[in-house]
Write a structure and sequence with these properties.
Elements (H helix, E strand, L loop, with lengths): L2 H14 L7 E5 L23 H14 L3 E5 L7 E2 L2 E2 H11 L3 E6 L11 E5 L4 H7 L4 H9 L6 E7 L7 H11 L4 E6 L4 H7 L3 H16 L8 H9 L9 E4 L4 E3 L7 H5 L4 H10 L3 H11 L1
The structure holds iron/sulfur cluster.
Iron/sulfur cluster binds next to α10.
């Protein structure tokens, strides 16, 4: 179905029928990763690799439940393989089913050579800081972005104590490359004791959000709607989000893998999730932003 018709169908179902229609499906295709970022819990645990058949069935089920937007994550999803197939095969299968927006969250160390999807590439700061956190991979990542099959590539940073002081430098540096369609971000989301030692909390969190909002006002391509900025700043938004699901080999979670941990949800800093909450609340600035970034 045409994407605009899909949007209209979704709005009707949400506004008129008041249904909680599924909106976004994420899939942890593998936990295998070739980097070793200190804040990532999910890498190389041995518990998350999909077989080909499970992956196809999961995509089919998600589509029949009503999802039309999809993202692949990991580990490093570009490393996923099974039964002689790779991620490109899953992307093609999802396209054939009818998924409209397909995103791959990647560390960018492998060629971005799959067509028919957008990439969200983690860059964890200006070159020196990124290289410290992400095993000296900056040059390789930027080279892969330069040669990506699609212009739909976004940079994404996870703000933590190591990189927060470099926010402004990072935004200027990434924007000057003119390789990315936008810059998205997360605030390190974890157990309270990990956030206390490595994350951004309290007044520092507010100052960071204010800085990002100011940079956006100055014209930098930061993916942050006014509604999401306000919701994140006040930490007032409805969560978890039943219209988002995350599939792993053994379970489909509502919202994300931390849904059973209210202490984690209480200070959730997954900005994309907050954006979705504002889209579902039909906030004009969030709707406008998603249309602009995905068309
Ligand atoms: S931490 Fe909670 S609110 Fe945030 S994405 Fe995960 S489940 Fe949703």
């Amino acid at each position: 179905m045409n994407r605009w018709l899909e949007h209209a169908r979704y709005a009707f179902s949400t506004l008129v029928l008041r249904r909680q229609t599924p909106y976004l499906f994420g899939m942890v295709v593998t936990d295998v990763c070739n980097l070793d970022c200190f804040y990532c819990e999910s890498k190389n645990s041995g518990g998350y690799h999909y077989s080909l058949n499970q992956a196809l069935r999961t995509l089919d089920d998600a589509y029949s439940r009503g999802h039309r937007s999809l993202y692949f994550t990991g580990g490093e999803p570009m490393l996923w393989q099974d039964a002689g197939k790779d991620l490109e095969f899953l992307v093609e299968h999802a396209r054939r089913l009818g998924f409209g927006d397909i995103f791959i969250f990647t560390n960018g160390t492998l060629p971005l050579d799959i067509a028919g999807c957008s990439y969200i590439v983690t860059i964890d700061g200006p070159q020196e800081v990124h290289d410290r956190i992400r095993s000296g991979s900056y040059e390789q990542v930027i080279d892969n972005v330069r040669h990506a099959l699609t212009p739909a590539v976004f940079a994404s940073i996870t703000f933590n104590r190591e990189n927060v002081a470099f926010c402004e430098q990072f935004v200027a540096e990434i924007s000057s490359l003119q390789l990315f369609r936008g810059i998205s971000f997360n605030l390190l989301t974890h157990w309270p004791e990990i956030v206390a030692s490595h994350g951004i909390a309290g007044e520092e969190r507010i100052q960071l959000l204010d800085l990002l909002w100011r940079l956006k006002g100055e014209g930098y391509p930061i993916a942050l709607s006014r509604a999401a900025y306000r919701a994140l700043r006040s930490n007032r938004w409805k969560r978890p989000i039943p219209q988002i699901e995350l599939g792993t080999r053994d379970r489909v979670f509502m919202c994300c893998r931390d849904v059973d941990n209210p202490e984690v949800c209480a200070t959730c800093g997954y900005a994309n999730c907050v954006e979705v909450s504002q889209i579902l609340a039909l906030k004009p600035s969030a709707l406008w932003q998603v249309m602009r970034l995905t068309t």
